[in-house]
Amino acid sequence: MAEGALDPQDLGGRLVGGGADDVERAAEAALRPKRLDEFVGQKVVRDQLSLVLQASLARDAAPDHVLLSGPPGLGKTTLAMIIAAELGTSLRVTSGPAIQHAGDLAAVLSSLEEGEVLFIDEIHRLARPAEELLYVAMEDFRVDVIVGKGAGASAIPLALPPFTVVGATTRSGLLPAPLRDRFGFTGHLDFYSAPELERVILRSAGLLGVEVQHDAAHEIAGRSRGTPRIANRLLRRVRDWAQVRGDGTLDLRAARAALEVYEVDPIGLDRLDRAVLSALCRRFGGGPVGLSTLAMTVGEEPDTVETVAEPYLVREGLVARTPRGRVATTTAWQHLGLEPPAGTWAAGLPDEGTGSRSRTLFDEV
Ligand SMILES: Nc1ncnc2c1ncn2[C@@H]1O[C@H](COP(=O)(O)OP(=O)(O)OP(=O)(O)O)[C@@H](O)[C@H]1O
Ligand SMILES: [Mg+2]
């Protein structure tokens, strides 16, 4: 492996990754807010959703279909569950990748009961035939069941009771317009502020039955990359440290020591992020350098660098993507404790010369 390369295994349990595996999802279930007023932050989406739900309850009719978009770990699944709970109805869960054939979706749809909420996670990954079936179901509350094959096949319309689709996507730009248009309400979840994450941490600590001091919560929040899932995960690691190496108190010392053990730095960068920054500055003098060269230098696949490390580095203004490649900004040099060379990009400034701008993974490409 190249110098400074990372063991690919390290990425599996990446402490600051936005995604979650099955084990983590089980741990998360206990920490999920159950009602809208417990849901921290996202004031705009919360207010809008609250109106949609209250109006639906007042009319005693299923609300419009809801699309929730935003990066992993910001609360899309949590909100879907809250929608069903606030409506006092049950939630049926499926996902784009789980629906292989249109028939699978037809089976789910035809078993829905009146007023139920159907949650379709990763809705941008639905197969095309299933998507087309969904258009009709969402608009006309009908599925066309196909009987027979080839020229003799015929469609038998089956009426569905009113229901509400809640779709979740990390890539709303990949949703075809006809599907996007069928959602009456779209909520876009944004990264959380540090004070909001502190509230998430204090709330979770309460549910875990541990006491976390305010300065420790503040420290953890600052390293959580704007993401409640990461905040909860770091909190659990700090709790481990406090129990095993400390005196059980979740104080600032425990937070700092635990996060040092896990190599999460003060702004939430992990080894891969720092390896990318270090290669950019130390090896390539700040760039511009192409993605594949950069990836090779840190011993990773280009895709990993682009989807795992880069979005946060770009969002934090440490790296900019330019038509000629990646460049380190002054902030990146300073973060590594290095003096930026003359002419280094200032953080976050769009490249006006070429008319392009830095963009993140979640921008619509
Ligand atoms: N606003 C919030 N307040 C408190 N906790 C939250 C909030 N949003 C998310 N969480 C916590 O973060 C965890 C992850 O949230 P959730 O599973 O809803 O994210 P997601 O957007 O569905 O992610 P993915 O795209 O990976 O499916 C949950 O355990 C939940 O407890
Ligand atoms: Mg989810």
UniProtKB/TrEMBL annotation:
<dbReference type="InterPro" id="IPR036388">
    <property type="entry name" value="WH-like_DNA-bd_sf"/>
</dbReference>
<dbReference type="GO" id="GO:0009378">
    <property type="term" value="F:four-way junction helicase activity"/>
</dbReference>
<feature type="binding site">
    <location>
        <position position="32"/>
    </location>
    <ligand>
        <name>ATP</name>
    </ligand>
</feature>
<dbReference type="GO" id="GO:0000400">
    <property type="term" value="F:four-way junction DNA binding"/>
</dbReference>
<feature type="binding site">
    <location>
        <position position="229"/>
    </location>
    <ligand>
        <name>ATP</name>
    </ligand>
</feature>
<feature type="region of interest" description="Head domain (RuvB-H)">
    <location>
        <begin position="266"/>
        <end position="365"/>
    </location>
</feature>
<dbReference type="InterPro" id="IPR027417">
    <property type="entry name" value="P-loop_NTPase"/>
</dbReference>
<dbReference type="InterPro" id="IPR004605">
    <property type="entry name" value="DNA_helicase_Holl-junc_RuvB"/>
</dbReference>
<comment type="subunit">
    <text>Homohexamer. Forms an RuvA(8)-RuvB(12)-Holliday junction (HJ) complex. HJ DNA is sandwiched between 2 RuvA tetramers; dsDNA enters through RuvA and exits via RuvB. An RuvB hexamer assembles on each DNA strand where it exits the tetramer. Each RuvB hexamer is contacted by two RuvA subunits (via domain III) on 2 adjacent RuvB subunits; this complex drives branch migration. In the full resolvosome a probable DNA-RuvA(4)-RuvB(12)-RuvC(2) complex forms which resolves the HJ.</text>
</comment>
<keyword id="KW-0227">DNA damage</keyword>
<feature type="binding site">
    <location>
        <position position="77"/>
    </location>
    <ligand>
        <name>ATP</name>
    </ligand>
</feature>
<feature type="domain" description="AAA+ ATPase">
    <location>
        <begin position="62"/>
        <end position="195"/>
    </location>
</feature>
<keyword id="KW-0234">DNA repair</keyword>
<feature type="binding site">
    <location>
        <position position="321"/>
    </location>
    <ligand>
        <name>DNA</name>
    </ligand>
</feature>
<feature type="region of interest" description="Disordered">
    <location>
        <begin position="343"/>
        <end position="365"/>
    </location>
</feature>
<feature type="binding site">
    <location>
        <position position="326"/>
    </location>
    <ligand>
        <name>DNA</name>
    </ligand>
</feature>
<dbReference type="InterPro" id="IPR008824">
    <property type="entry name" value="RuvB-like_N"/>
</dbReference>
<comment type="similarity">
    <text>Belongs to the RuvB family.</text>
</comment>
<dbReference type="Pfam" id="PF05496">
    <property type="entry name" value="RuvB_N"/>
</dbReference>
<dbReference type="GO" id="GO:0006310">
    <property type="term" value="P:DNA recombination"/>
</dbReference>
<comment type="function">
    <text>The RuvA-RuvB-RuvC complex processes Holliday junction (HJ) DNA during genetic recombination and DNA repair, while the RuvA-RuvB complex plays an important role in the rescue of blocked DNA replication forks via replication fork reversal (RFR). RuvA specifically binds to HJ cruciform DNA, conferring on it an open structure. The RuvB hexamer acts as an ATP-dependent pump, pulling dsDNA into and through the RuvAB complex. RuvB forms 2 homohexamers on either side of HJ DNA bound by 1 or 2 RuvA tetramers; 4 subunits per hexamer contact DNA at a time.</text>
</comment>
<dbReference type="InterPro" id="IPR003593">
    <property type="entry name" value="AAA+_ATPase"/>
</dbReference>
<feature type="binding site">
    <location>
        <begin position="139"/>
        <end position="141"/>
    </location>
    <ligand>
        <name>ATP</name>
    </ligand>
</feature>
<keyword id="KW-0238">DNA-binding</keyword>
<dbReference type="Pfam" id="PF17864">
    <property type="entry name" value="AAA_lid_4"/>
</dbReference>
<keyword id="KW-0067">ATP-binding</keyword>
<keyword id="KW-0233">DNA recombination</keyword>
<keyword id="KW-0963">Cytoplasm</keyword>
<dbReference type="InterPro" id="IPR041445">
    <property type="entry name" value="AAA_lid_4"/>
</dbReference>
<feature type="binding site">
    <location>
        <position position="73"/>
    </location>
    <ligand>
        <name>ATP</name>
    </ligand>
</feature>
<keyword id="KW-0347">Helicase</keyword>
<feature type="binding site">
    <location>
        <position position="182"/>
    </location>
    <ligand>
        <name>ATP</name>
    </ligand>
</feature>
<feature type="binding site">
    <location>
        <position position="78"/>
    </location>
    <ligand>
        <name>ATP</name>
    </ligand>
</feature>
<feature type="binding site">
    <location>
        <position position="31"/>
    </location>
    <ligand>
        <name>ATP</name>
    </ligand>
</feature>
<keyword id="KW-0547">Nucleotide-binding</keyword>
<feature type="region of interest" description="Small ATPAse domain (RuvB-S)">
    <location>
        <begin position="193"/>
        <end position="263"/>
    </location>
</feature>
<dbReference type="GO" id="GO:0005737">
    <property type="term" value="C:cytoplasm"/>
</dbReference>
<dbReference type="GO" id="GO:0005524">
    <property type="term" value="F:ATP binding"/>
</dbReference>
<dbReference type="GO" id="GO:0006281">
    <property type="term" value="P:DNA repair"/>
</dbReference>
<keyword id="KW-0378">Hydrolase</keyword>
<feature type="binding site">
    <location>
        <position position="76"/>
    </location>
    <ligand>
        <name>ATP</name>
    </ligand>
</feature>
<dbReference type="GO" id="GO:0016887">
    <property type="term" value="F:ATP hydrolysis activity"/>
</dbReference>
